[in-house]
Specification:
The chain is an alpha+beta fold. 45% of the residues lie in helices and 12% in strands. Strands 1, 2, 3, 4, 5, 6 and 7 form a seven-stranded mixed sheet that branches. Strand 1 and strand 2 form a beta hairpin. The longest helix has 19 residues. It starts with a helix and ends with a helix. Bound molecules: iron/sulfur cluster.
Length: 386
């Protein structure tokens, strides 16, 4: 690639952004590192349309890093409910505390220091430093990797360390000379990958627009656009099955706080059995199991409790429904078993708690469990009115 192309790339991209970039999104134009950071984390695995709705809500509830650091993690998880990838919410909270405790509530402007904060990787550190402090820091998210792989016809697997190093070096080489241009340039790069040089329908293939780099882009010149970046074949996601017990007492339902490092870590969910590989043999189930099977099922879900005592107070377990949930790398079939307890039984395990259905909004719940419980809550309201 010619030196003049490398030197002019930033100016050409900024000129493209003025004409065809995205403008007026609520998280754009901020110089407040807190606002930049929240938007960057939320946009990582969530569609722009969803972030448009949820970002202003989050910022209204937690307007500063000090406010976010001061609340209980449950509040953050409840606000994050439905956005998925809950480790992001846990990291946001932990990082806010770090900023308050170690940096007196002010984000550092050095990308190397930003990278040391919980949940902030090198690319996010670069984005915060560029947007908030006009630092000469490159970004290298999936969109930028794709643009670079195509512009420079890099046909090796992008996960290889040597290739990643090469991409970072290129991302740095292309930065604008003027520090003042860093926010616009960084936004332009993000927008170009998200809207023009997209994975499946880049404009040079769809023919809808003329790409400003089409005469330099090595992938375009060599007819390799859809072949780059090189795809790695994915293994089929493993499938699991588990039992969950929906134990109710009037308006209360038994929930369990999940361990922080598990899937849906820190959220409140139905008590569940261990996940096992889904096999044809464990697909056959009786919708109203015998007393012995019910007791066994309850024992595998409420481990460590005196289940026999509890069992005496419960109505027979009935299969309520099967819920399938797709995670990024696995699928889970949840068998929901319902029973009513005569009283709010006291459990030894403090993570097990009876939660009032009318106060569900105060708890962070996994989306499928939230929908299930909201259904119960709705039925309760209808029942009360009729
Ligand atoms: S020519 Fe196509 S592949 Fe190359 S940068 Fe432009 S949109 Fe992307």
């Amino acid at each position: 690639m010619s030196k003049s192309f490398l030197d002019q790339f930033a100016d050409r991209l900024i000129a493209w952004h003025q004409r065809d970039g995205r403008h007026g999104l609520p998280w754009q134009g901020h110089r407040d590192p807190y606002a930049v950071w929240v938007s960057e984390i939320m946009l990582q695995q969530t569609q722009v349309a969803t972030v448009l709705e949820r970002y202003p809500r989050f910022m209204k509830r937690f307007p500063t890093v000090k406010k976010l650091a001061a609340v209980n993690i449950d509040e953050v998880l409840a606000e994050w409910a439905g956005l998925g990838y809950y480790s992001r919410a846990r990291n946001l909270h932990a990082c806010a505390k770090q900023v308050v405790e170690e940096f007196d509530g002010h984000f550092p402007k050095d990308p190397l220091l930003l990278e040391k904060l919980k949940g902030i990787g090198r690319s996010t550190a670069g984005a915060i430093a560029a947007f908030a402090f006009e630092e000469h820091a490159p970004i290298l998210d999936a969109n930028v990797k794709r643009i670079l792989a195509r512009l420079f016809a890099i046909d090796k697997a992008l996960q290889e360390k040597a290739v990643t190093d090469e991409l970072w070096a290129l991302a740095k080489r292309l930065l604008p000379k003027s520090a003042k241009s860093m926010p616009t340039y960084t936004q332009a790069l993000m927008d170009f990958g998200a809207t023009w040089c997209t994975a499946r329908k880049p404009v040079c293939i769809s023919g809808q627009q003329r790409c400003p780099f089409e005469k330099n882009c090595q992938a375009n010149l060599n007819d390799q656009v859809l072949l780059l970046p090189k795809k790695i074949s994915k293994a089929k996601s493993p499938e699991f099955i588990c039992n969950m017990v929906l134990l109710r007492h009037g308006d209360f339902v038994l929930l369990q706080k999940r361990p922080p490092k598990a899937i849906w870590g820190g959220l409140w969910s139905l008590p569940e059995s261990e996940w096992i590989a889904r096999q044809p043999v464990n697909l056959k189930l009786s919708h109203s199991p015998s007393k012995t099977s019910s007791l066994n099922l309850l024992t595998t879900v409420l481990t460590g409790e005196n289940v026999k005592d509890l069992f005496k107070q419960c109505s027979p377990l009935l299969h309520k429904e099967e819920i399938r949930h797709v995670f990024t790398h696995r699928r889970l079939w949840m068998q929901i078993w319902e029973s009513h307890s005569q009283e709010r039984y006291c459990f030894v395990d403090p993570t097990l708690q009876w939660i009032d259905l009318r106060k569900l909004g105060q708890y962070g719940l996994p989306q499928p469990i939230k929908l299930l419980l909201q259904g119960l809550s709705l039925a309760r309201d209808v029942g009360t009115k009729s």
